[in-house]
Amino acid sequence: MHPLMNRFHTDEQRRLMALLGVTDSIAPTISRRVFLQSAGATGLAIGFGWLAPTGADAALSGAEGAATGPLAPNAFIRVGTDNLVTVICKHHEMGQGNTTGLATLVADELDADWSLVRTEYAPSDPKLYNNLAFGPLQGTGGSTAIANSFLQYRSAGATARGMLVMAAAEAWHVPASEIRTSKNTLTHASGRRATYGEMAVAASRQTPPDNPPLKSAARFTFIGKDRSTPRVDSPSKCNGTAMYTGDVKLPGLLTSVIAWPPGFGAKLVSFDATDAKNVKGVTDVVEVPEGVAVVATGTWAALQGRHALRVQWDESSSKDLDSDALLARYRAQAAQPGTPFTKPTTTSAASAVKTIEAVYEFPFLAHATMEPMNCVAWLHDGMLETWSGHQFPTLDHMFAAKAAGLPMDKVKLHTLVSGGSFGRRANGWSDFTVAAVNVAKAIGGRAPVRLQFSREDDTGAGLYRPMYVHAVKAGLDAQGGIALWQHTIVGQSILAGGPLADFIKDGIDPTSVEGVDKTVYDLPMLAGTLHSPTLAVRPLWWRSVGNTHTAYVMETMMDELAAAASRDPLAFRLALLGKSPRAAGVLKLAADKAGWGKPRRAGVAQGIAVHKSFDSFVAQVAEVSMRNGKVKVERVVCAVDCGVPVNPDVIRAQMEGCIGFALGALYYSEVELKAGRAAQRNFDTYRSLRIHEMPRVEVHIVPSTEKPTGVGEPGVPPLAPAVANAVAKLGGQRVRRLPFTRAGLVET
Amino acid sequence: MSVTLNINGTRREFDGDPDTPLLWVIRDDLGLTGTKYGCGIAQCGACTVHVDGQTLRSCSAPVSAVAGRQVTTIEGLASPAAKAVQKAWVALDVVQCGYCQSGQIMSATALLEKKPKPSDTDIDHAMAGNICRCATYQRIRAAIHAASAQLAG
Lengths: 748, 153
What we know:
Chain A is of the alpha+beta class. Chain A contains 19 helices and 27 strands. Chain B folds into 2 domains: 74 residues, Beta-grasp domain (Ubiquitin-like (UB roll)); 73 residues, DNA polymerase, domain 1 (Orthogonal Bundle).
């Protein structure tokens, strides 16, 4: 998801509701009417013949929903008589550490004992659990989880603390101001003492205070205190007990795989299920809107059944979809100006005495989460339950209800941790959720059913970071200053065609141009234009969205211009960052820690880059060696300014992860379209970074009192240009087509 | 034809297709879901288990191949090396999404059981078959060294 959703205004909210088929509010009463109408119109018939001997909640006891009061002052916190504090997390955990972050915010204001803090994931409820940066939507993305929750979750903790203190004051007949709190314990100078658990019942009878006072930063006990709050999900992820979608156990649970269209836009002609049905364990072979689903008692039987299935597809509409042809078309488009997305305030093109022209090419990228997409759906007793990594519960909820033909209040989502997302699980089609519901419908709700994508299904499913081409003409004046910057971008709009299409303004999808538009540099002459072709393959955001390509172009061109001006790349940048002191700050910090400018041993060079994304500033220095023409990134020094650092170790972990993720993509990642099909389908051809390729990473966090901003994505954009800038120093080669395999710079 | 298995010290019978990959027997039939599916072609290592102490990518091994052998999954880890690895993993907060980490821990444990003091090159060789898309590699390396130090200490 994307921070442009910060700009939700009331009108935009209403338009989004209308697009999604919901009228005025997403309250269940309203939704029920809307969705009942759609169910009636389509005449959906759903069977509820099968009733489990035990309910789903019983089967999953302990996974979620376990917290009980008695102290439950708001939607985010429970304090039990057992003295346990449970924090209810509205955000989706896909590895970025926000579960720990949200618990940290509550625990600090509550003066909790961290060892007594538990977490659980919130149900789907956009009234209680909406992302404050998005408007009336519950969802996680755009590196907003901690930023939007910073005051909300602290306030939740402060409210509970206030009620505990009031209860103790009443019980002990002392002024509330004399009561101290620390580590789940209330104390008074008289010697009176009680745990939060002991005071929880009495506290629950207090009126929650309005606007409870929040701590000043100087009084934080956990926020910003390094390693004071270890990750809450570490133990369960180290002993195999963490529950992901594939691990859900329900009575009679079936597994399905879908024979998906082999190419983008392929249409089902016919299928013969005879052999598939002969595979032991296969229970159903059913047509669904997505393709043909093979349902079985286990995963292997489902896969074998699909292998035996004979399907005819019509691929005539997509056979011309080809990456090489697309690139040629995009290059031609990039030579012509498109729709302007900047308003240059100076034009000094005539004074440019030295110009550089460059064309950059970026491939389609798959997210390739470790956990391939999946969802469990169960239609029973007039309702639908789903279990999945619902990164965007509100959208998944609406689309699931629509697919099931049920009102929203008859649909219950169980949000589980997911094995990575990088944007994949937040999409405006809710593809994995809807497909699972369609399979559940197709078997008449006879049993709960898990839809599992194979790795090949997952990589071939589209929803890629689109292919982009940039064409830049930049020039220096006689003094070595930038006098000219013409920049045209070609690539699919991520927002077009989805439920967020209304964010496209004046023909510009902000996710296509962010990072060129609103650059941190003072470039009043920058003339940017955009072409947004449409394709049959669905586009999607991919960790750091538009910045995945714009930062590469801006930051490698910056180095080329610095070289043309015979200036040091660091000094050249700093001269253009007068209006962005935080960008300059991280740049200087990274350079200083990396020993920028100091001599390196032969065959080693440093490259530098800085980028702002999701309101955070990150600079990186990549130290790169080259042997026999092959690149090795030895070390990356990273400086990040993300406002108040809430969990410093989580911030470091995200920077390390962003760097490895971005480096793998720079080296290897590309999905090629050939005759309408994705050519790479598994990790043998869609390669990922491995341990021996991981550089040593050092992360330096800028101390700050600014409001906290994101860390899940902003570490990605500077990595590739920093490495490319070092490569250019080493061999003179300016890499303008990614990935590096295309230039022979890495082993294939 | 049924296959007799020894999983985590317990004898289990499997009556299905003997060509079924061990992974799906472990997950679907035995309900041990700590072992993960990632690729199905022995490229990512999420499905790593131990067979007689050696790592095996269970997604690509037919269940019949492990008949009569000692299979250990993440749920059955009990050796001092395994406990040291898990402790180091938690102490250094290695995990992010966590999906690959069962496999990482299985590979790291097998390494330390063979080589209690591995070099960085040893770690590269033992762990290169385990992909982590969150790229927690730096902490994986540090945790292996920490576990090694603890075992020595």
